[in-house]
Amino acid sequence: MDKIVKSDAEWRAELSDLAYKVTRRHGTERANSHDDFPKDPGTFCCRCCGAPLFAQATKYDSGTGWPSFFAPLSEQAVGTSEDRGLFMRRTEVHCARCEAHLGHVFPDGPQPTGLRYCLNGVALTFEPDAT
What we know:
Blueprint: H1 8-14, H2 17-25, E1 42-46, E2 52-55, E3 59-60, E4 68-69, E5 78-83, E6 90-95, E7 101-106, E8 116-119, E9 124-128
Antiparallel strand pairs: 1-2, 1-9, 3-4, 4-8, 5-6, 6-7, 7-8
C-alpha cells in the first residue's frame, strides 16, 4: 500500500475541525460520541485516506464509550507507537497508510487476541459489504 503524505494545510482543508484535531493532532473525542455506527456487515476505514482498517465482525462493546475492536483487518493496516502523553504510557494506533491517529490499543480485550483497539469514531468511516 502506497503511503499518503499531505501538507498540514491540505489535511485541514479536507477534514472537519474535530477530525483534524483527532487524526492529525493526536486528540481524543468525547466518549459516547459515535454510538451511531451501523451494525451491518462491513469495514471501518480511515477517515483521512479511506484505507480499510477493521471489520465489523471484530467490533464489540467494551463499555468505554469509544468504538472498540479486538483485531485490525491485517497487521499491515495499522501501526503503533509509544505514547507518553497525559503522564501515562500507552500504545498509540495509527493508520499505516497516512499516519492518522486512530486511538490506542490495550491488553484487556476479549479473545482470541486479548487486545482492545479503543478508537476515535471520528477517525473512521464505515463501508457496508456489497450485497
